[in-house]
């Protein structure tokens, strides 16, 4: 009790500490992007990755369905995902100019070309370094919107506006500056679509950290598809033909 009383008396005698004199400076966009790139492994390490292949599992329908999952990316902006279900191969691909798909679960075994709206998600997915990498060179604008809670974490929120007007809100962990959530807002066939993606379990591939746990779905939805990456390999030979629309029907 005596120690507590002494502390209270000293607190009354000492001058109050003014936090207003030294406010925490608001970080700039350039500072946050630089910290994010540094956390990922550095711009040089990211630029050195020309191709990357992920393999794992895709869990959908609230865990009731599990598919074997493969994704291959190649600069600049090429991406292809394959998901195998009961011997059927579901494909989505973008060759940096146009997209196509094969959805045999709907009885369509032949490849179909995507509209430019439908391929927007693949344009975003094809960014090896994410929406912040080389944002100035790609004609994007980035604005800092302060902090916003993500699952109890006061994350730094950055608004990314793409040249086509679509938006990505990127949330950075305040301690590690890695992306923990991305909210994409895009216009498809005249309607606004919002896709919320939570990122975690970062692991290093060729000196660069990539998320190995990805949960994506409509904003606010409890039924999100989960991608669990089990292995990844960078700078493997990848032929451009795998991203291009097939000249022959799929087998």
Task: Describe the structure in brief.
With 251 residues, this protein is mainly β. The protein has 4 helices and 13 strands.
Which structural class should the secondary elements be placed in? mainly beta
What's the SSE pattern? HHHEEEEEEHEEEEEEE
CATH class: Mainly Beta
Give the tally of structural domains: 1
Overall strand count: 13
CATH level-four homologous superfamily name? Lipoprotein localisation LolA/LolB/LppX
CATH topology: outer membrane lipoprotein receptor (LolB), chain A
Our estimate of the beta-strand percent is: over 45%
Q: Could you outline the blueprint of secondary structure elements for this entry?
A:
Layout: H1 2-13, H2 29-40, H3 43-48, E1 51-60, E2 65-74, E3 78-85, E4 88-95, E5 99-102, E6 112-113, H4 120-125, E7 141-150, E8 153-161, E9 167-172, E10 179-188, E11 191-205, E12 208-218, E13 225-234
Antiparallel strand pairs: 1-2, 1-13, 2-3, 3-4, 4-5, 5-6, 7-8, 8-9, 9-10, 10-11, 11-12, 12-13
General description of the model:
It is a single chain. This protein is mostly beta strands. The protein has one domain (32-242): Clam (outer membrane lipoprotein receptor (LolB), chain A). The chain contains four helices and 13 strands. The chain has helices spanning 2-13, 29-40, 43-48, 120-125; strands at 51-60, 65-74, 78-85, 88-95, 99-102, 112-113, 141-150, 153-161, 167-172, 179-188, 191-205, 208-218, 225-234. Strands 6-5-4-3-2-1-13-12-11-10-9-8-7 form a 13-stranded antiparallel beta sheet. The relative contact order is 0.17. The model is unreliable at 1-20 (pLDDT under 50).
